[in-house]
Amino acid sequence: MNKGRRVGCSVVTTLVVAISFIYAVVFMSRPALLVNHSNALASVRILCGAEEMFRSGAIKDEDGDGIGEYGTLQELAEVEVYTSSDSDTTRRLLPEELANGQTGGYMYEITVPASPDLAEEFFFITAWPCKYGKGSALVDDLLAQHGVPPFGPTGRMTFCADQSGKVLVADIEGAKGRPEDVENLDVWMTSEEWVFGTSSSQRPAASERK
Ligand SMILES: [Ca+2]
């Protein structure tokens, strides 16, 4: 009788642990993924601003026409700026991890046309999750504290932006964004639509989104 009760208690304890783990994975992890998404959106915006600074400063002007070209991530990463107008101290234009193309569970890539004429007008940024899914970054954080490699996804959404400065967001199963993909209005939302949850029927027409 006692043995049966102990077995019963063991089963209940196992169930409680399992339910707690599932709860942690499904619910508590969401804020962690939201943090990754939020950081990725902010980082794409930082890169858009860095591109405008890079171009307006004509840091790269391969055709020598006085009009700057947009830069790749590596070119942006090499730029140093003064910390203030009356200081000789400089810092990198981009945070080091972002300059390396991977931070906060996301990877980053900037594409610039090879032709200087076109590189004066166009760039394309994309950020995509290192590991796609809807699960837990929080659990990975906890495991990492005990030296266990991460196993869970780091993000769900892919982000894109171009010289317009508008950031588009979509769940494309972890793929990196491509310029030809962002034409698909059924998939991509503007960052404002994504953040505020605007329904597709309220989306602006294609011409207004460009
Ligand atoms: Ca030029």
Features:
210 residues, alpha+beta, six-stranded antiparallel β-sheet, two-stranded antiparallel ribbon, 7 helices, elongated, binds calcium ion
Helix/strand order, N-terminal first: HHEEHEEHEHEEEHH
Structural class: alpha+beta
- Small molecules (ligands, ions, cofactors) in the structure: calcium ion
Tally of individual domains: 1
Largest sheet: 6 strands, antiparallel
Query: How much helical structure, as a percent, in the residues?
Result: 40-55%
Q: Write down the overall geometry.
A: elongated
Subunit organisation of the chains: single chain
Mean pLDDT across residues? 83
Total strands: the figure is: 8
Cα Rg: 22 Å
- Kindly report the spatial arrangement of strands forming the biggest sheet: 3-4-5-6-7-8
Low-pLDDT runs of 5+ residues are: none
Count of DSSP H/I helices: 7
Strand % is 5-15%
What does this structure look like?
This protein is of the alpha+beta class. It has one domain (31-209). It is 40% helix and 15% strand. It contains seven helices and eight strands; from the N terminus they run H-H-E-E-H-E-E-H-E-H-E-E-E-H-H. The chain has helices at 2-56, 73-77, 96-99, 116-119, 138-144, 191-196, 206-209; strands at residues 80-82, 90-92, 102-103, 106-111, 124-129, 158-162, 167-170, 189-190. Strands 3-4-5-6-7-8 form a six-stranded antiparallel β-sheet. Strands 1-2 form a two-stranded antiparallel sheet. The protein binds calcium ion (CA).
Describe, in short, the structure shown.
The protein is α+β, with helices and mostly antiparallel strands.
Explain the layout of strands and helices:
Blueprint: H1 2-56, H2 73-77, E1 80-82, E2 90-92, H3 96-99, E3 102-103, E4 106-111, H4 116-119, E5 124-129, H5 138-144, E6 158-162, E7 167-170, E8 189-190, H6 191-196, H7 206-209
Antiparallel strand pairs: 1-2, 3-4, 4-5, 5-6, 6-7, 7-8
The structure holds calcium ion (CA).
